[in-house]
Amino acid sequence: MEGVLAAKGARFSGILNGIDTQTWDPGADPHIARTYTAARLQDKAANKTALQREAEASRTLFEQFLQSAKETNVQRDFQQPDAQIVSRAAVPTSPSFPPLNLLLAVFNMIPIPPLDGGRVAVGLLPRPLAMKYARIERYGILILLFALFLLPMLGRPLGLNLDLFSVIIGPPVTWLWNLVVSAAGLH
C-alpha cells in the first residue's frame, strides 16, 4: 500500500494528522482570548482560564433564569383567575353524522399509492409486487378522480349505482363512528 501511495502521492492531498493547521492555528486564531505557540505555552493556560470564566458566567446566568422561572410559577399559583363561565357546553346526546376528519382518515387509507393506504399496501406487499404497485403512483390521482367522480356520472344514465365513495368509504366510517359513539356513551 505504501508503494502505491508513494507512486501516486502527487495526486493526493489531505490534512496532516486530521487538523488543518492553517485554519486551526492558535498563533493566529482571532476567536481565542490569547494566541499562543509551542514556544509560548503559558498563554494557553490563559485561554483555559478565559473559557472557565465564560462557562461560569453562562452557568450563573442560567441559574438566575431558572430561579426567576421558579418565582414566576410560584406567583402564578397565587393568582386567581378572573374568567367566568358564561354557559356550559352542550354535549350532543344523539350524534347524527360522522365528523369530516373521520371521513378523511378512512379516505386516506384507500390503498391507492398517492394516499397513505397505498403506501401501507406497498409496505406490506412482497418486494417484487411492491415495486410494480408503487409505479402506479403517478396515475393515482387520475384513478381517484375517475373512481370518485366519473364512474358515478357514467353509471347514472345506465341506472347503475357506481358511487364507489359510498360503497368503499361509507361502511368503515359508519362502523368507526358507531364505535366512537358507543365508547363515549352517547348511544
- Following the backbone from N to C, one meets helices and strands in this order, namely HHHHHHH
Mean pLDDT: 78
Largest sheet: none
Taking the alpha carbons of the first and last residues, their distance comes to 79 Å
Summed up, the helix count is 7
Overall shape: it is flat
Gyration radius (Cα, Å) is 35 Å
Which class best fits the helix and strand makeup?
mainly alpha
What is the helical fraction, as a range of percent? 55-70%
Unreliable segments of 5+ consecutive residues: none
Number of strands: 0
Strand content: under 5%
Report on this model:
Among the domains are: 29-73; 100-183, no CATH class. Helix content is 58%, strand content 0%. The protein has seven helices and no strands. Helix 3 (100-108) packs across helix 7 (164-183) and helix 4 packs antiparallel against helix 5. The termini are far apart. 3% of the residues are buried.
What attributes characterize this protein structure?
single chain; 187 residues; mainly alpha; 7 helices
Characterize this entry briefly.
With 187 residues, the protein is mainly alpha-helical. Helix content is 58%, strand content 0%. Among the domains are: 29-73; 100-183, no CATH class.
